[in-house]
Here is the input.
Amino acid sequence: MHPHTPAFCSIVPPHLLEHLARSSDPAIAAAARRTLVADAAARTFRVLPLPGAAPTLAPGDAGKPHRTVHDCARGTDLPGPKVRGEGEEAVADATVNRAYAGLGATFDLFMNAFGHDSIDGSGLPLIASVHYDENYGNAFWNGEQMVFGDGDDEIFLDFTLPVDVIGHELTHGFTQYTANLEYFSQSGALNESVSDVFGSLVKQYARGQSAQDADWLIGEGLFHPNVQGAALRSMKAPGTAYDDDVLGKDPQPGHMDDYVRTGRDNGGVHINSGIPNHAFYLAATELGGNAWDRAGRIWYDVMTGGTLTPETRFSEFAAATVAAARARFGDGEEIQAVLKAWAAVGVPTD
Here is the structure.
């Protein structure tokens, strides 16, 4: 595996916040500008894990979550005072309880579906801070912990509401500790896509949903009811998640013919992630059943197999999924579903 390189990874892309910052509504524009400033400050914060600095677990603690939730009380000092620890009773603050439950739901998927103990495979404690800053319209992973804003109640609601947002951000930690995909261009779009894939699987696992039953939306329930949009992204139909006078239109492509070349958003990591997202959706629904059993297992094997480089491109990742499908399932319907999915989005696998 490669040295772990933490990166600031947020659920709401900067291009969307920049669009909101130009809104004619002063409240919406001010909240978006404040969020962009807070993100810029948080992006400079880097946590560099010490080599071999795995948590020391007591006998019998392996395979169990170790969660801590902190309250920033609308400030920006991290992590903030602790308000709920592992095994403690629910508190009066629903946001704290949702964060605690979301950390647990993510742990459960990785542990129960893949045998992966926390996001690093070695029982890493899961830390979250809620009520970050004022009117903060984002959630992020900073290399060490999760951070959630309360939203502005104009565009965004509380960021602990969608469990897949929690799963998405924690999966950036999983990527950090496994394939360590560089957060730029195609490798960055893959980094984002892997977070969407496992974030969606967290939601599906928690709800007991099959691939056919799942909505394949990322961040459903995050928008204020006045917003014309279902979610931040759609894996089923990239580019259709929202179309709103204030937000603008979802820019995600679902095919390489529409790949967006841009210098913004680290080379369009939140935009072009729609292409591998759609490939996973196609493979998972083609195979049917629980998406984590076969399609999810293939993606997991790729991320943990040690064959990716930090600069992995779409075609290299696609080829790795084909190899992983063959290695685990042989030359059956799994490899055919993977080949068909990547062909459908215009990504070569050889």
Summary: Confidence is low (pLDDT under 50) at residues 46-56. The first strand starts at residue 9 and ends at 10. The CA atoms of residues 217 and 256 lie 21 Å apart. The beta strands are 9-10, 67-71, 82-85, 126-130, 139-141, 146-148, 217-218, 233-234, 243-244, 248-249.
